[in-house]
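JOB MANIFEST
job_type = single_chain_structure
chain_count = 1
residues = 576
[input]
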Amino acid sequence: ICEQCCQAEGSIRCMSCTGVHAWCGPCAVKAHRNLPFHKVQRWNGTHYQATSLMDLGFLWHVGHGGGHVPKPRRIPIQRSLAMYLGKDLQITGQRSSRSQMTIVHTEGIFTHEVSWCSCPGSDPIDLHLSLLRERLFPASISKPKTAFTFEVLNHFLIDALECKTSAMSFYQKLKRFTNNAFPDRVPVEYRELMRVSRLWRDLKHRKWFGFGHDTELDPGEGGLALFCPACPQPGINLPPDWKARYDRQYVIDGNFTAQHMKMNKPEMDVSLSDGKGYMVSEIPYQSHLQQSVDNKERSTCSNHRAINAANINKSNLRSTGIGATACARHGCFVPHSVVDFQKGERYMNTDYSICNALSYHSENITTALVIYDVGCQWSVNFRSRVKSSSSLFLPSGLEIIPAVGKFHLAAHKLSCFPRYSLNFVKGAGHLDGEILETLWAPFNKISPTARSMTQAHRQEVYDDHMRDSNWKKLVGIVPSLLKKYKTSNKCLEDMNQAYEQLNAVLDPNKVARWELDAVKAEADHGEALDIYLLRGDKAPTFHEAQLKLGKNPVSSSANLGSVAWLAEGISIEDSQ
């Protein structure tokens, strides 16, 4: 018996409602007046069989909180609405106009009959606005037949950011939620999801950054991006007397997994936020590349992969990777500084990224530490390349200190160690210069999906993931800095104790001379830092060591010594 009317048979149950219920058809519809995305089943005599609220007579009244339309228009006005919507619209004398719509929700894909508001003052051209008021995002502005709930769009964005879920995988999940046994019977709205999710993402970001209700104000370059809350930014997070007290620290690196294929119809691509996030504006960047000269500078250091990769050119790729600049201490991407590579990691690409990063919210900052895998080669002619380019600019009076990350420094020549090691840069602290390597790890999971996207879509996806990465840094910066502060205080006590113990056993005159040399090297940089160069005797070759070890005397037991025995074993191995 129906639990509500207590008269008809209670053959309907809801799988989404909490508790156990039994309704007749009309009472089930009444109970779900404001719950259109619940899944119901009907008892057929032997078992419960899936049905839908629409099959039970559910009618979605748009514009009146789920209630009936109070004052429908006359027939002529309804006919104009019918002509606007098409053949699916039904016209009845005293009833509002209706049409069927496919609505995508987190619980699956639903089909509902919609009753459109035809009250005085309503306009059939504004049907998309009526859907938005119901928290439904239409797939098209004119004659909408498909809509997505705000909830499912938010779910998709979070799934993409946290789980790296592609649009196809997400929609396949919704199809299985709808009909796991026969998913092919579910309406296919994948293309609509691709289009609507891009619009939704852009609208959300514009609202978050204060441009949601102002269509005339343009966000500008990097206007829809977050940056590091702890790095010094004049006019944003510095006290009035900040000058000469703060500097900036950057790290730049490339990611050759983030490739991009050439598009079949690039003229059909539409960008929603070109240059508004972390990737640079396309037209000025391409103009810079056309004006730049690809000078293959001879390397005076080791044979680095980044330099060799400049010769890589794959005909099916529009981009062989991306290069980004981030703050070296906290790992936040710098807005409007991520560039595409065309033939590997060329200086014309990295120069553009670094110059944009150095100019972002850095007015009157006089010193910048730039950490780059090949900083020893890149820094040699950097200023001359900037001076000869019409598209590269540096803040006036800015001193750039080049350095190499600690991991990559091991692959450099020995002479690079004192000149480009972070150990000898004042204020570098415990920087390792490799934080971008950790940021690339999650990006490598979305690179296969973004590889075949359109250029604009790929840019928006990368911007979104970089924005999310910076957001996570922002909300976790306080506990992170507190933990590092406590660790640093403990390390400082230990190092001071070791330093004092070492000074106690050294000649005071030598210590004074060394301190003067250290101050001079810190001020002059370059060759002056060679005082830290390790000096020692050249290691013997393998054959010299083998000859020396082979002369090991015979032991009292008439057997060869252990060292000579090992040398003999190596010789036998080499001869085989």
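[summary]
The first strand starts at residue 12 and ends at 14.
The radius of gyration is 34 Å.
exit_status = 0
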